[in-house]
Design brief:
Number of helices: 5
Strand content: 5-15%
Radius of gyration: 19 Å
Order of helices and strands: HHEEHHEEH
Oligomer: single chain
Helix content: 55-70%
């Protein structure tokens, strides 16, 4: 019986400490990411993922799902990480995402998001 009790106590300690050690995304980074997602959603642009074009709402839903997964896995620490890991390319195929606004040439999404992040950080939004 002592072994079962010890395992239960150790499991409880690891569970508590693991939660205490989890790092939340800094509020500044969270605000930047929220802004980028809203910017895409309201852009009216199309988003190409794996060779198929999607509207902005569908693109945001997809990127948010990746974002939430990365947050749960504690794999993001900044808006730059968000762009690199959730909004630049397909995790499955490795193909780069593209954004096309109006009649403009399609732009790699990482570049598109980084340009807007720089503008947001400079206060010129």
């Amino acid at each position: 019986m002592p072994n079962f009790f010890m395992v239960a106590v150790l499991t409880l300690i690891v569970s508590c400490c693991g939660s205490a050690l989890a790092v939340d995304l800094p509020s500044t980074s969270k605000a930047e990411i929220d802004y980028l997602l809203a910017y895409l959603k309201n852009s009216g642009c199309q988003f190409n993922r794996n060779g198929k074009w999607y509207n902005a709402d569908d693109a945001v839903s997809h990127i948010e799902a990746k974002y939430n997964y990365l947050i749960r896995k504690e794999m993001l620490s900044s808006a730059d990480d968000f762009i690199d890991k959730a909004a630049t390319k397909s995790s499955m195929s490795g193909k780069s995402y593209l954004v096309q606004c109006g009649n403009e040439e399609p732009t790699p999404s990482g570049e598109w998001f980084r340009t807007e992040l720089v503008r947001y950080r400079s206060g010129k939004r």
